[in-house]
Specification:
By secondary structure, the protein is an alpha/beta fold. The protein is built from twelve helices and 20 strands. The strands form six sheets. It has an eight-stranded parallel beta barrel, surrounded by five helices. The chain binds manganese (II) ion (MN).
Length: about 475
């Protein structure tokens, strides 16, 4: 590999401004840290305060070459660096250039996986033991699922304020990320605002403007803390109506939506959003009907207000589709219940920072103009997937079951090849899995899914 290395002592060339802009746009995982230690090899690039200085003689952006051959060269180098346990992350921007980025807190990727393996954890699971569990099964990233962080008792919130969910401060977020970093992992994303942060944005209520200011501050705090993605679900009814049964292989318990077993579509009571109570003293009554036009209007307000802040903060907003993907639930319309509706989301405010929390399982449950493979191809091809929920399913709405990653309707390897085709370099997490029959059903289920994913990613990366 020496043929394309430069000397560590060589001066770094200045890059044109448009290149730096591209670099910043394509690298949400670069955070404004301090200069990092370059590996004890010849230096390719150095990350300094959100700037990448790149030096790849002969294969840089000035010399267009086939992206695959560049990546092949980088891969062989990375395999060696990985063994040396240096810290790096790789992405490439086909076909124009290839970059190696060194980030101060990005854990080592062993070998070369453009896709990263992650584990999603609820507040009560955000413990050092579970971080080590994630490392042990090969994950490098954590997604922190925080909709009930305040109410869970895991967060220090003044008495009586847990339902109102004060906005997450920079210090809290920094501490959360540091705790994860200290176990050798990176915090890839936060998933879901707390109901108290934004119920009147969803409901078009009197506190809408005030709560939008709060969301903007959260996004700024996340950017400052170096958390690159905010996953969310723009929905009144949230995840609703699912039942549990022995539907996965061997009678493993899993969830699903079965029309005959679903509860009645009663209207949503006042003071409740997402099946969570934010006001115990709300007046009697319910929120009534929310039409599709009303929902898209509220969503448009949300995006137009928040995306510019997200761009400034270098935090991607990532929308989860509706689960279950019905056109309406409890008399409230749903935003993304067909795969093509994701395009409407993208087109509402075109920006790299208006992105998707791409739930393969939910999309596979949908009817629509395209199947799951066309959906991956389309949205990965637009570089709008911030991270992936990688799970499998049998059936479609209104009757489907979640199953083990290797037994559903979807060819998961085929989907991975499509992510690879588009140079997808984000995180894949198992989302949920059936529980395995043992003393630790959740952990065993996750370990099974992550082991499968790790092997599959390795396999397709070497193709
Ligand atoms: Mn999901």
């Amino acid at each position: 590999m020496s043929g394309w290395m430069c000397s560590r002592q060589a001066p770094f060339p200045a890059l044109p401004a448009d290149h730096l802009a591209l670099t910043k746009r394509r690298s949400p995982h670069i955070h404004g840290g301090t200069t990092v230690t370059a590996p004890p090899y010849d230096t390719h690039c150095l990350l300094r305060e959100r700037q990448v200085v790149e030096w790849l003689p002969g294969i840089g952006y000035r010399t267009p070459r086939d992206a695959d051959s560049i990546v092949a060269v980088l891969r062989s180098s990375i395999a060696q660096w990985g063994q040396a346990r240096n810290q790096f992350t790789l992405w490439y921007d086909p076909p124009r250039t290839a970059h190696l980025l060194f980030a101060s807190s990005t854990p080592t990727l062993e070998g070369c996986c453009l896709m990263k393996l992650g584990l999603g954890l609820y507040p009560r699971l955000l413990t050092p033991e579970n971080f080590r569990f994630a490392r042990q099964v090969g994950a490098t990233h954590i997604v922190a699922h925080l909709p009930d962080w305040s109410a869970s008792g895991q967060r220090q919130v003044p008495a009586g304020q847990e339902l109102q969910s004060p906005i997450w401060s920079y210090e809290e977020l920094r501490h959360l990320r540091s705790t994860i970093n200290s176990e050798g992992l990176e915090l890839a994303a936060i998933e879901n605002f707390e109901p108290g942060h934004w119920y009147d944005i969803l409901l078009d209520g009197p506190k809408k403007t005030e709560q939008m200011d709060g969301l903007k501050q959260i996004i700024r705090n996340m950017g400052k803390a170096g958390i690159p993605v905010m996953g969310y679900n723009f929905s009144m009814a949230g995840v609703w109506g699912r039942t549990t049964g022995p539907w996965a292989r061997g009678g493993a318990l899993s969830v699903g939506y079965v029309e005959e077993q679903a509860p009645p579509h009663d209207p949503i009571p006042n003071g409740t959003i997402w099946n969570m109570v934010y006001d115990r003293n709300a007046p009697a009554g319910d929120i009534g009907t929310v039409s599709s036009e009303q929902l898209w209007s509220r969503f448009g307000y949300f995006l137009k207000e928040l995306v510019p802040v997200a761009e400034e903060a270098n935090v991607r907003l990532a929308l989860h589709p509706d689960d279950p993907p019905l056109a309406s639930v409890r008399q409230t319309a749903r935003l993304v219940y067909r795969p093509e509706l994701y395009q409407r989301v993208i087109d509402t405010v075109p920006s790299y920072y208006n992105a998707l929390e791409f739930c393969q399982g939910t999309i596979a449950e949908m009817h629509g103009d395209m199947d799951i493979y066309e959906a991956v191809d389309r949205y990965a091809g637009q570089d709008r997937i911030a991270y992936v929920h990688f799970r499998n399913v049998k059936g479609k709405v209104p009757n489907y079951h979640e199953v083990f990653v290797d037994e559903g309707d979807m060819d998961m390897i085929r989907t991975l090849r499509l992510y690879k085709k588009h140079g997808y370099d984000g995180v894949c997490i198992p989302d949920h899995t059936p529980g395995l029959e043992c003393g630790a059903p959740w952990h065993a289920g996750m370990a099974y899914a992550l082991g499968y994913m790790r092997a599959a990613i390795r396999m397709i990366e070497s193709e």
